[in-house]
Design a protein that fits this description.
single chain; alpha/beta; eight-stranded parallel β-barrel; 23 helices; about 20% strand; globular; disordered N terminus; binds 4-O-methyl-beta-D-glucopyranuronic acid
Length: about 850
């Protein structure tokens, strides 16, 4: 009772840690009106424990109890419709769940009237308290059950009849999990939600509970396979011990109809098998793969297949032996064929060592996929699928669709999307990605002058192929939030819903996700919808716009701003920015020729500046900073304005979120967790804005027409304060510090102060922001005083809180801001920052802003 009262007093519901994702089955608001329309029992047709129809029965029971507090009995029927247990439900309305085949066996007459379903499809019919949920196969029945539960969870208990077949057969997720922690990328490469749920210390974890919970989430949105290990694959994955462990993971997946798939290292026959070669045309190599594949299928008879990254970023592949990529892919296809498995072979093939920007104006990494795969379309076996990243470079905030989709006509293809926000804020920034995916999927490539949307190419419709679909790099981890941020889970949800049906709207699935994840409280749904829908455009604005890519530090964490890191190296993510001009000339007439890789209508559009959309201008063209866009602005002024506009949107997010405090479904744990990230994002968006603007102002020497860039009237630069124990420090890259410098403690054990007299500040109430750097190795402490009053004390502990890539440097990755609101200041007060260094972190401070209400600087 006491704790109930306490909860009521704080206005928060019981804490939630996010583990259940959108499958919380929390009590719905209009449970009373629904109660009368619910069945009283669940009938499962020919269910086997451990398989999806059985799971569907359990989920229906759990869900209806959670949503409405109504306990349903489960009545199991055998293949002829006879009760399996001794306690068949007596009378009342039932929800019947099973496969179409099982239903046909027990209800032949009714079954004759069912609509046609394709692979994995389901039929759902709810009428006056009875429901029928049938799957074309076992997992189809589970998909149907989850679909109905999603409706019920939104308080929708109306009658419905629906037949749904997924648009594409391949709806996979990729995990980039390493067998072992360490190396350059930790336990999950580009993972921001903790360590691998599958592997630890070179082995499959003994406890695979999380694998089952993950599969449950995936099945609920129609996803059907998980590649459990990194495409930069460890050959040890194929040792007998590891294979046994993989079988244990597959056992956890199976009840949800989720299949296991494996990433392979192309050189395994040599490095693991001890053969003298891994040449794909060498019979002993083929035999080695056949044997390994048989061993896997002996343990995991329903394994989905393989994923291979070859001849890319240092990975071995067929080209090592002058064989084609098709020779490589087909070798796996042959081993898999007798087992019904498929091989997803990645098109992310390029050379990151020899591209030279200075010597060769026509060098271009974007061309690589088409250059390598062209001419191979006739060569792939029919269980090969080429997995193509959505854009020609690498998961950037804005890329044109990869032209390779238009080149492979006979060969099945899948699109690779990235749920883990590698270049897009690493889950420390809210960026809802579905609107971007929709644009890519709806893009019309005009193959042979006919409508050829990406989505119809990958589904197989456009070229009449059986296989094809979606691969999403998800990279969940052991964190209970899965991805490291509650709000980021909308991306996983939307990915699954889109892969099933690319016709759904990004806002529609978002609203559904919010209702299930938090509550269907009108304001909760509207506000989170708004925040999410503005997030991708805002991120694009405050990071990199006009198609220039994200401008993250591509040599370090792919996170904070460092525009100079794009150029001058062979990674080929160039901007070619100099004192006068910027952009990649990818035209045929004068540039790298990349534009010509598209079918003629699209190629013609991108070839000319006049017909290239502004948001891809710098992707396709090299232009002066003074070039005038279709919007009427110059390129440089657009940069300045967009960065200000994007960062301004980020400033609105914390207050929007705060407006939901105490609303239904917003418990304290998730509230605080999200608020922390949004405040952080608002601060880091300013770091982005200023870094990029300073950088291009410095390069172009063209001032901002509105006089904002480089002019910060509310800031007090730390290096201009009176320093005791602190010394000025020149930051690299220079643009990552206001005024190019910050202060650091003289030694890593000096407690230091920076102080200033607030002579020019009028007595009043202000927000005080401190910009500082929170580095990976150390937990400095900062204290802020105004007069004799301590305003705040905080630690440099982001490395334990935010999952983003850590950086040991004072740079755009570690630059951050803390804001203290409503601070009373008297003219002439002394403002003081006291820094206590720790480890390698010398309590760095960039500046302090004294902000009158409504101003952000
Ligand atoms: O974007 C790059 C990433 C690598 C990744 C690679 C790939 C798994 O930085 O971490 O490696 O793409 O997709 O293969």
């Amino acid at each position: 009772m006491r704790s109930l009262l306490l909860l009521a007093a704080t206005g928060f519901a019981a804490a939630e840690d996010g583990l259940a994702g959108w499958l919380r089955y929390a009590r719905v608001d209009n449970d009373r009106s629904c109660l009368a329309r619910l069945p009283s029992s669940i009938v499962t047709l020919n269910a086997t424990q451990g398989l999806p129809v059985h799971t569907a029965g359990q989920e229906l029971a759990q869900g209806i109890q959670g949503f409405f507090g109504k306990k349903l009995s489960i009545d199991e029927r055998d293949e002829r419709g006879r009760p399996k247990n001794n306690r068949p439900a007596k009378g009342g309305k039932a929800v019947t769940v099973g496969t179409v085949a099982a239903y046909r066996a027990s209800h032949p007459r009714e079954a004759a009237r069912l609509p046609e379903l394709g692979d994995d499809g389901f039929y759902l019919s709810v009428s006056r308290g009875s429901a029928l949920i049938l799957g074309q196969n076992e997992r189809g029945a589970l998909y149907g059950a989850f679909r109905w539960l999603a409706l019920l969870g939104q308080g929708n208990c109306s009658d419905v009849t629906l037949a749904s077949t997924p648009d594409a057969s391949i709806r996979w997720v990729n995990q980039w999990d390493n067998l072992q922690d360490g190396g350059t990328h930790g336990s999950v490469e580009r993972g921001y939600g903790g360590d691998s749920i599958f592997f630890w210390d070179g082995e499959v974890r003994p406890d695979q509970t999380r694998a089952g919970q993950y599969a449950r989430l995936l099945a609920s949105i129609g996803l059907n396979a998980v590649v459990v290990n990194n495409v930069n694959a460890d050959p040890r994955t194929l040792t007998p011990e590891l294979m046994d462990g993989l079988a244990r993971i597959a056992d956890q997946f199976r009840p949800y109809g989720v299949q296991l798939a494996l990433a392979l290292n192309f050189a395994s026959p040599q490095t693991l098998g001890g053969l003298p070669t891994f040449d794909p045309l060498e019979p002993s190599v083929q035999a080695w793969w056949d044997e390994a594949t048989n061993e896997l299928y002996r343990r995991i008879p329903d394994m989905a297949g393989y994923l291979v990254k070859a001849n890319s970023e240092g990975q071995p592949g067929p080209m090592t032996y002058n064989r084609t990529l098709a020779d490589g892919a087909n070798m796996f296809a042959r081993s898999l064929k007798p087992h019904g498995g498929i091989i997803l072979f990645r098109a992310f093939v390029y050379n990151h060592q020899t591209l030279n920007q200075t010597l060769d104006w026509k060098a271009d990494r974007a061309r690589a996929a088409v250059d390598y795969f062209d001419g191979l379309d006739d060569d792939f076996l029919d269980n090969v699928v080429v997995q193509i990243k959505y854009g020609p470079i690498d998961f950037q905030v804005r890329e044109p669709v990869s032209p390779l989709f238009a080149h492979l006509v006979k060969t099945a293809t899948a699109i690779e999307l990235q749920i883990t926000q590698e270049y897009l804020g690493q889950q420390a920034h809210l960026v809802y990605l579905a609107p971007m995916w929709k644009e890519l999927l709806d893009f019309d490539l005009r193959v042979d002058g006919r409508e050829s949307r990406t989505r119809d190419i990958i589904s197989g419709k456009r070229f009449g192929r059986r296989l094809g679909g979606y691969a999403g790099v998800v990279n969940v981890g052991t964190n209970t939030t899965w991805l490291g941020s509650h709000l980021a889970m909308s991306n996983l949800y939307a990915y699954g819903r889109l892969a099933w049906d690319p016709d759904v709207t990004s806002e529609g699935v978002l609203r559904e996700w919010i209702a299930l994840t938090f509550s269907d409280d009108r304001r909760v749904v509207d506000v989170i919808t708004h925040m999410s829908m503005v997030s991708w455009p805002a991120y694009e604005n405050y990071t990199g716009n006009l198609g220039v890519q994200t401008l993250t530090d591509i040599l370090l964490g792919h996170y904070g701003p460092n525009p100079a890191s794009q150029d001058g190296n062979p990674w080929g993510q160039w901007t070619r920015a100099d004192g006068d001009s910027i952009g990649m000339d990818r035209t045929v007439w004068n540039g790298t020729g990349f534009a010509g890789q598209y079918p003629p209508e699209v190629a013609a559009r991108y070839e000319r500046i006049e017909t290239t959309p502004d948001n891809l201008l710098l992707w396709f063209h090299h232009v002066p900073y003074t070039h005038v866009l279709k919007s009427g602005k110059t390129v440089i002024q657009h940069f300045y304005d967009a960065h200000y506009a994007g960062a301004a949107v980020a400033q609105t997010l914390p207050a929007l979120w705060k407006s939901l405090r105490g609303r239904r479904g917003i418990d304290r744990e998730r509230y605080e967790h999200v608020l922390f990230r949004l405040e952080y994002q608002a601060g880091h968006a300013l770091v982005w804005r200023d870094s990029i603007n300073n950088f291009y102002f410095n390069k172009s020497s063209i001032p901002d027409e509105l006089g904002r860039v480089g002019r910060h009237p509310y800031r007090i630069e730390a290096e201009a304060m009176t320093l005791d124990g602190y010394v000025p420090y020149a930051v690299s890259p220079f643009e990552a510090a206001s005024g190019t410098r910050c202060i650091v403690t003289r030694t890593n054990s000096t407690r230091a102060t920076a102080s200033t007299v607030l002579r020019n500040v009028k007595t009043g109430v202000y927000d005080v922001a401190v910009n500082y750097y929170d580095m990976a190795h150390g937990n400095s402490t900062w204290e802020l005083y105004v007069g004799s009053q301590r305003i705040g004390r905080w630690k440099g502990d982001h490395e334990y809180i935010l999952g983003k890539a850590p950086s040991p440097y004072i740079d755009g990755q570690t630059a951050t801001r803390i804001t203290f609101r409503d601070v009373r200041i008297r003219k002439g007060d002394v403002l003081k920052v006291v820094g206590t260094p720790d480890g390698e972190e010398p309590a760095p401070v960039d500046y302090v802003s004294i902000l009158p209400k409504g101003i952000v600087d």
